[in-house]
Amino acid sequence: MLAQNGHVDVRVAPHIDAITQWRRDIHQHPELGFDVHRTASLVAEKLRSFGVDNVVEGVGRTGVVGVINGNSIHSGTTIGLRADMDALPIVEQTELDYQSNTTGKMHACGHDGHTAMLLGAAKVLCETRAFNGSAVVIFQPAEESGAGGRIMVEDGLIQRFDIQQVYGMHNLPNMPLGRFGMRSGPIMAAVDTFDVSLTGKGGHAAMPHLCIDTMVVAANVISALQHIASRQADSLDSVVVSVTSIKSDNDSYNVIPHTVKLKGTVRALTQEVKEKTEQQVKDLINHTAKTYGASADIQYWHGYPATVNSDNEARIAAEVARSVVGSTNVDANVPPVMGAEDFSYMLNECRGAFVFIGNGESAGLHHPKYNFNDHAIGYGCSYWLALVEHLMPAN
Ligand SMILES: [Zn+2]
Ligand SMILES: [Zn+2]
Predict the structure, then answer these.
(1) How deeply is 280 buried, as exposed, middle or buried, from its count of CB atoms within 10 A (0-12, 13-18, 19+)?
(2) Residue 366 alpha carbon to ligand 2 centre in Å
(3) Residues with beta carbon < 5 A to ion ligand 2?
(4) How far is the CA of 73 from the centre of ligand 1 (A)?
(5) CA-to-CA separations, 163 to 131, 188, 319, in angstroms, rounded
(6) Buried b (16+ CB within 10 A) or exposed e, 313-346
(7) Residue 6: what pLDDT?
């Protein structure tokens, strides 16, 4: 199975079995949000056992940060490498022998793999130290919800550890194993969410003329929102508007409801498009409701910003990935993904790049049958190692 193993750094290869065991252990013990106490303790304990120079727990509540100094630190360069530790509230259906031991919690986004790969890189970096500067390994909680990345940044992550560039990695199902993808500019979307309460006038379903039928208003609102992506947005901009929930205050056959509530999400790749879309969503909802004599109460929540790679660091990430897996296995202009990622908060503070690593054929992220591919571990660890040694070459 490890036919592509020729690309794995020889200093990483001997550790892959151990790293795989850590990954499966983390997989079996998933934790949610900031409540990643077991995982964070395991990470801190391992970092100490590797001889990491400084291990700091509790950064951004349950985040863990480790500082690894090279043979020399005279370059004054410090780079951050980030992994995420949290799982999802999903009932696992993989039937793996190391599947989740907690019903309703599952590592369905591969953060178990991200954490294990960064731990593996930390171990090898501690052994080799063939660089001039400091590598800061960052293990964050609450990526899936709770903005752990933002909370770590607000806890002074970048300044406290003097991080000058920061790099992140996420596995991508159905990108072939041994491949990397990245791009300069936006690589993942900004996500906002909204709640709408539409109020008309309820009454007997046989006498709609005496009512303001909020169901019909809701149907028109949902239809109208489709015009944003298809008609109002520039066709060269990426924007997604999805209504994901509709609930009326009535559950019978013969009553026109008084209120109907909608939920939805908006995704865009730039701040400009995001702001424009927010206004369009609000206008369409308000105007459509008004057209039918109903009213709309909109609550609009700003979520994670777009994940935007800086040009030079995206180029460096591509160069480093090529040095690991060869140029045919690196797509330096990978299409952006319309999911969101709170590594964006770190990139908003600091230059850097987020890359995708192929997970091979697998169920999609957040699917109950998803599993991180252990065969990606060698490539991921080798990339981290190569990145550190490229950015901070030993004298
Ligand atoms: Zn996820
Ligand atoms: Zn994820």
Answers:
(1) buried
(2) 8
(3) 109
(4) 35
(5) 16, 22, 21
(6) bbebbbebbbbbbeeebbbbebebbeebbbbbbb
(7) 59
Using the mean position of ligand 2's atoms as its centre, give its distance from the Cα of residue 271 in Å. 22
CA of 329 to the centre of ligand 2 (A): 22
Residue 243 CA to ligand 2 center (angstroms) comes to 23
The secondary structure of 127-183 as a DSSP string is HH--BBSEEEEEEES-SSSS-HHHHHHHTTHHHHTT-SEEEEEEEETTSPTT-EE--
What is the model's pLDDT at position 4?
46
Least distant ligand from the CA of 343: 2
Q: State in Å: Cα 365 to ligand 1 middle.
A: 6
- Tokens found for residue 85: 């530790």
- Which structure tokens are listed for 287? 């105007």
Span from the CA of 85 to the centroid of ligand 2 (angstroms): 9
Rounded CA separation 153/187 (Å):
20
d(CA 12, CA 63): 25
pLDDT for the residue 395:
78
pLDDT of residue 151: 98
The contacts of residue 219 (CB under 8 Å, 6+ apart) are none
Closest ligand to Cα 191: 1
- Cα(130)–Cα(69) distance, integer angstroms: 10
According to the model, what pLDDT value does residue 98 have? 98
Q: How far is the CA of 341 from the centre of ligand 1 (A)?
A: 8
* Residue of 373, 374, 381 lying closest to 324 (CA atoms): 381
Instruction: Give CA separation, 320 vs 5, 189, 206, in Å.
Output: 17, 24, 69
Cα–ligand 2 centroid distance for 81 (angstroms): 15
Tokens 């879309």 correspond to 277
Distance 71 CA to ligand 1 centre (A): 36
H or E, element range at 308: strand 307-309
Class of residue 298 by CB neighbours under 10 A (exposed 0-12, middle 13-18, buried 19+): middle
CA angle 101, 102, 106 (to 5 degrees): 95
d(CA 59, CA 303): 21
Give pTM, 2 decimals. 0.92
Q: Which residues of the chain have pLDDT under 70?
A: 1-6
CB atoms within 10 A of CB 154: 12
Ligand 2 centroid to residue 365 C-alpha, Å: 7
Contact 9, 386 (CB under 8 A): yes
